[in-house]
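[step 3/7] fold_predict: job queued, chain A
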Amino acid sequence: MDKTAIVWGAGGGIGRALLQQLRDQDWKTIAIVRKESDLESMTPHVIEADVSDPHQVQTAVYEAAMEVDTVNLWIYAVGDITSAKVADLEYESWNRILDANLTGAFLCTHYSLPILTEDAHLFYLGAVSERLRLPGLSVYAAAKAGLEAFGESFRKEERKKRVTIVRPAAAVTSLWDKVPMRVPADAPAPAKVAARILKAYEDGHTGVLDLTG
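[step 4/7] structure written:
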């Protein structure tokens, strides 16, 4: 069987690292990005879609189905963050963060199911949400906690598939540019997180994958 993968959020730091390593391992990959990107050197199959828009997600899956018959490995690496106290947080910002981290995960999962193999492995890039319950991070922490709950329920519904929620350490990505915090000195590079995810795929992992240790 061909090795085929879809990476949602392939333009981000971890998404890009995943795409690079999948290419190096001879996977056939579909890269989903929100805006035009320079990923053509890693895969000829780059599709633009806003994960908060059901129609765009459905269209992206349809286009992916034109390139691959089925998908073995499915990864949701979309994410966004903002820093604002509840008193200052605008409704638009609240929705944007929920869309990227939670609602988009549902939409992409829902529309992708018809092209996934019976034993496909799905990964969702989560976070250690209890460590994020800090002033200014209410919506991000809520979204990531919701994503983990969503993934656990979904795993129990699709018992023939493998579902993994990844709890990475604070990886060095551009998300840090959006918050008034310093990148931890021991924060791993995106390539290290990507390698752990692909190792978990090889090992047949399911459930929560904690990479903070």
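[step 5/7] annotate
The chain has a mean pLDDT of 91.
DSSP finds five helices and seven strands in the chain.
exit 0
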